[in-house]
Automatic annotation (TrEMBL):
Protein name listed in UniProt: mannose-6-phosphate isomerase
Keywords: Isomerase, Metal-binding, Zinc
UniProt cross-references to InterPro entries, sorted A to Z: Man6P_Isoase-1, Mannose-6-P_Isomerase, Pmannose_isomerase-type1_CS, PMI_typeI_cat, PMI_typeI_hel, RmlC-like_jellyroll, RmlC_Cupin_sf
Zinc listed as a keyword: yes
Amino acid sequence: MEAASVSKQQHGNSNINNDKVIIQRLRCSVKNYEWGRPCRDSLVAKIFGKNSGSQLDEDQPYAEFWMGSHVSGPSFVVSDGLQRVTLKSWLLENPNVLGHKVLEKWGGDLPFLFKVLSVDKALSIQAHPDKDLARTLHKLHPDVYKDGNHKPEMALALTEFEALCSFVTLKPCIMPILDPDDELQNGVLFDCLEIKAVLSVPEVVELVGVENVNLVLQITDEDGEEKFKPILQSLFTEIMSASRERVTGAVGRLRNRLHRESQVRQLTVKEQLVLRLEKQYPSDVGVIAAFFLNHVKLSPGEALFLGANEPHAYICGECIECMATSDNVVRAGLTPKYRDVQTLCSMLTYKQGSPEILRGVPTNPYVNKYIPPFEEFEIDCCILPQGEIAVFPGVPGPSIFLVPVGEGMMNTESPKGYPITEGDVLFVAANTEISVTSASELHLFRAGVNSRFFQAS
Ligand SMILES: [Zn+2]
């Protein structure tokens, strides 16, 4: 946005202090993607039903609940119980609620998109482009790549949550001298098992070829991750671009072999996962690609963040998700949707090793803050016992609050209070201090612009 128009809006719109503007109730969109949980045990369905007052379709899966201004799943501002305008057009009329730093940086729109996910069946193996690639892809294929923005994301687990992400370490293995009391050495051994597992899977070797396997075996410990990256890229590309017939054959043989071997030995966790994926997506190359990615299990309260060009696939569980406002996904496996194998394989960073898990930083006795390394967003998680108060200090940017559980009251400095209950979603303007009191145990999630963005600017 031009500086001149920002300053005009700052001076031309003085209703920022108007009570009607600082808090808005939102009615939000739902996505019934086929990987979603069945209606009866989907948190997304429960929240959407209460938020919209709509009749739920018992026969549909409920996958994602979207809170934000993206055109593919808009939220609407509600007043006097009536759905008025989209949040996006309301923000254009009331830009000051975003705060001037956000306006200067991102224009008159919300920089983040907030979601709830209920995952029953694995999502596609995917990655999200960086800003430059996003712009290029959108220009070339606007029908597939819907916008020109990047899409860093973070998933905060509400239940046990499983995902595949980033490549397993493929460093050559020097067997450590084993000391069962030394956890670090056990960690090293674990990585050794990963490489051994991947390159000793006959169906993997079948698809990548013995020459490629030998290339890996020639790498020495001194060569390091950088030298290994092109080899990893060529292995992964070989697998992802194998012909339909070869993949179908390899996946079938893999399934039969693991079923047979499960009679005489305990399958590894990765092998068990691979069999689950094969049931969900028979003959899909993603079943074999899964061997190359870290299998991560989050407990409730743990979060995983993914930068640009990192491969990942959510497998099962429910989570709160936040991302930059974008819907750009490059898919290559575990999906009936459009696959762009060439783009995916060439865009990935091929970074190896387990991802960083965030556990949040307490900002008061009831609130935990999750700050990923992306300027667009952060998440606060508040679990408030009955009859307690939590204060969210005013921040220089906009916030969206979601109430998945419980009821209570939300207050600003003005005497008017806002009753809150399950399914409520509220937009809160920049620089508004919020205090929340709970009538029962109350769970509350807040998405806002990353606080490091305001500290840095
Ligand atoms: Zn993703």
